[in-house]
Write a structure and sequence with these properties.
By secondary structure, the chain is mainly beta. It is built from five helices and 46 strands.
Length: about 650
């Protein structure tokens, strides 16, 4: 009651003085919001003005210069939209009136909340960050300008939180406008599955209507991961197929080299992701094929064993066997193939199979002996046939004929005993002077075998004179035995009998050569008929011009032709031509071997009026009537064959010798 009385007294004493009904309050707003600072004055007499941070906004109700500011009907300050420039203290002031003193409201603070800036991932300015597989990496994202400080989150492109090992977030205040910068660091282990994945950093605070994001793509670098592929359809490979193997490598960066191995051995020249095998053969069956791809971070290898279907190949041949009558023997054969082969046995030339197994048991008898063979069968491939094997009845061994054998004293000596046996199971015993020789010391024993032929060899080291003489060789088996004596003699340094065959062969060869030379010599000395032979000027010319129709001329009947050389001289009577047929002429450097008839001599003299000798003159002018010249083996000799048609016809037969030009 007392307070009411005092208030009434006061109001009565002051009169109607102006006063604040509502004063502005502190406001927190977001950028873009609308803010109204209330200032309601009762009994206002003075002029109203708003101040910001102590500076007046002016008394003009339109508030020129402040387009976002306006006064409401009750003179409250309306700010729309709010920006970060509006941060500060605002005050409502009323000027003094006639009866009122000036008024100032309490200051009201406007706090503006700012959304964070667009975050930035350090190192990801290009949008890509390259990292290595299995390494520990750190991503750092920062967002500035937020008020209050932003919250930063990490996620992948699907919106799921990014797989992180550790997150570290720190905030710092910026002095300029009292905003905040938020930095978030994450540590993670790089996995191959992260390659080409997008990492998103988002920043948000209470001033944000939505988060602000930035993103980078992870380029994970990793070594090759290799797998091996085959273009064989369902995986079935047949012998003779063309096969391509593909080395599929997942790596970043791509491999820069490839290599191929077969059973651990490198295949030279194969440097591409593809291995092409043309007409694949059975050597690849069960073979391990490996491919290696390499890049800058390392290498990886993948491989597999190939399964190949291929024709049978006989690897176990049946062997001939000999047994006693009534014995049971077994023949076996085997082939490698895929799939496994079936086996068929045949006997002799009979096309009917007798067994369907890889083994056949035979009871030795006169009816079962013969030749057996087996075939390996794989469907779709050619059969493989074994070599023939002979089943025979055991007989006693036979020792072949042995000639006397020779050796030198002091030089190792080998004595050979040839044995024929259908089986290798036999005993061979050596004897010397009635005693059995045992292997050891100076005696070495061995044998060589080829089919049914066996050579037993007794080797004597550095024999003395006492080691030469008669040796015995005995071969025996379950059926019987055979024995022979072998004479071993000392070989002299030179034995004419040993070399006699060679000497005889040499002498026969020499005689054969002499006979051939004699025949050739006689043939070359044979003189042709009706030939006219001219020699050079230094040798006599022999002409035979007697009647050629007389074929029975003989110097023995008393005919003696005149012999004249080319110079017209007659030789003495004791040098007359003997035993030469008048139709033939020959030149051997003897002037007496010139036979001619008288009329031919006269014709020759009349035609030799030239200053040149006849032999030279014939080369100084062309032959008459277009005749031909024939050159002798000596370049200076020739024959004129145009004058005698009979001679010309003889010459046309082409007979010639190494000493004549005919």
């Amino acid at each position: 009651m007392i307070r009411i009385i005092l208030l009434a007294f006061t109001l009565g004493s002051v009169g109607s003085s102006q006063y604040f009904i509502t004063e502005p309050e502190d406001v927190t707003a977001n950028i873009g919001d609308e803010v109204i600072l209330k200032c309601v004055v009762g009994d206002r007499e003075g002029i109203l003005q708003w101040t910001r941070n102590g500076f007046g906004l002016g008394t003009d109700p339109e508030l020129p210069g402040y387009p976002r500011y306006s006064l409401t009907s009750d003179l409250s300050l309306k700010i729309s939209p709010v920006s970060d420039q509006d941060v500060g203290e605002f005050q409502c002031q009323i000027g003094a009136g006639d009866t009122s003193r000036p008024l100032r409201s309490k200051p009201a603070k406007i706090s503006v909340q700012l959304p964070p800036g667009v975050p930035v991932i350090l190192g990801g300015e290009t949008g890509v960050i390259s990292v290595n597989e299995d390494s520990i990496e750190i991503l750092e994202c920062e967002s500035a300008g937020g008020k209050p400080a932003a919250r930063i989150d990490w996620r992948d492109e699907s919106g799921k939180p990014f797989k992180l090992d550790m997150v570290d977030t720190r905030t710092m205040k910026e002095d300029k406008n009292q905003t905040f910068k938020t930095i978030s660091s994450v540590r993670y282990k790089v996995e191959r599955a992260m390659h080409n994945k997008t990492v998103i950093c988002s920043a948000i605070n209470i001033a944000s209507t939505e988060s602000k994001n930035t993103k980078v793509r992870l380029n994970v670098m990793y070594k090759p991961k290799v797998s091996l592929g085959i273009n064989s359809g369902a995986g079935l490979i047949r012998e003779g197929d063309n096969v391509i193997l593909h080395c599929e490598a997942d790596s970043n960066p791509a491999p820069y080299s490839y290599s191929w191995r077969k059973n651990g051995a490198i295949l030279p020249g194969e440097l591409t992701p593809y291995l092409v095998v043309e007409k694949i053969d059975n050597s690849f069956h069960s073979a391990r094929i490996d491919c290696e791809a390499r890049n800058s971070l390392g290498s990886d290898t993948a491989g597999k064993s190939l399964t190949l279907q291929y024709a049978p190949i006989m690897v176990l041949q049946p062997r001939s066997v000999t047994g006693k009558e009534g014995d049971e023997v077994t023949l076996s054969c085997g082939a490698t193939s895929n799939p496994p082969a079936r086996y068929i046995w045949f006997k002799d030339s009979n096309p009917q199979p007798i067994e369907f197994s890889d083994k056949i048991k035979i009871l030795v008898s006169e009816y079962s002996v013969g030749t057996y063979r087996c075939e390996a069968v794989v469907e779709g491939f050619q059969n493989a046939e074994s070599k023939p094997a002979v089943v025979s009845i055991l007989e006693k061994p036979r020792i072949g004929t042995v000639e006397t054998q020779f050796g030198y004293i002091g030089e190792d000596l080998e004595i050979i005993c040839p044995v024929v046996s259908k089986t290798q199971s036999l005993n061979i015993t050596w004897y010397y002077r009635g005693r059995v020789l045992q292997e050891g010391g100076k005696y070495l024993m061995g044998r060589k075998s080829e089919d049914e032929k066996i050579e037993s060899i007794l080797r004597i080291r550095k024999p003395t004179e006492l080691d030469f003489g008669e040796y015995g060789c005995r071969a025996d088996n379950d059926i019987g035995a055979d024995y022979t004596s072998i004479q071993v003699q000392i070989r002299s340094n030179f034995n004419i009998l040993e070399y006699l065959p060679f000497i005889g062969s040499g002498v026969a060869g020499v005689f054969l050569v002499l006979i051939i030379l004699l025949v050739v010599y006689c043939c070359r000395r044979k003189k042709p008929e009706n030939h006219l032979i001219s020699m050079n000027s230094e040798k006599p010319i022999i002409r035979a011009s007697r009647d050629l129709s007389n074929k029975n001329l003989d110097l023995e009947d008393g005919y003696r032709p005149n012999i004249i050389d080319i110079y017209g001289n007659e030789p003495s009577q004791d040098r007359r031509l003997q035993n030469v047929h008048p139709e033939f002429a020959g030149y051997y450097g003897n002037p007496h071997l010139n036979s001619r008839r008288d009329e031919d001599r006269l014709s020759s003299r009349s035609s030799s009026q030239s200053t040149l000798p006849p032999a030279l003159e014939s080369w100084s002018r062309p032959p008459p009537n277009g005749g031909r010249r024939s050159l002798s083996p000596n370049a200076s000799e020739g024959v004129d064959i145009s004058a005698n048609s009979t001679l010309s016809s003889v010459l046309s037969g082409g007979s010639r010798s190494s000493r004549y030009s005919i």
